[in-house]
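Shipment paperwork, digital attachment
Item: protein structure file
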Amino acid sequence: MLKKLKDLFVSADVAHENDDNKRLQASLAALLVEIARADFDETAEEDKEITRMLVDYFSVSTEEAIVLLSEAQIATDDSVSLHEFISTLQASLSAEERLKVIELLWQLALSDTILNKYEDHLVRKIADLMYVPNSDVIRIKNQVLGI
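Attachment content:
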């Protein structure tokens, strides 16, 4: 009986952990979609880059990343703000992991070699809402630019 009870708690913990991980993946994917859309010129190349980033960052398959991307596109269409996505990342990630998220956002914004003012503004806004210091935001941007 105790073993069954223990197994029940362990399986509940695993299910909760999986839900948290899915929410984290969905939130990052949504922010990447928002960056791709910020310059009003979302391209197939940006979608491929988002897919690659999700595969690399979360160690998921390409097929899983494509599903994440399409779900994120729908979620951002239905969302009225970035708060739900940012708060999930803010609560789940360490300071170092948040820096990596900002690096991914800069990489996507600069993937077409043109930094649109709306992309720049959105990355900075997200960083501010995630409590990433501006000095780190600028350092990461310059690092991505190769400066």
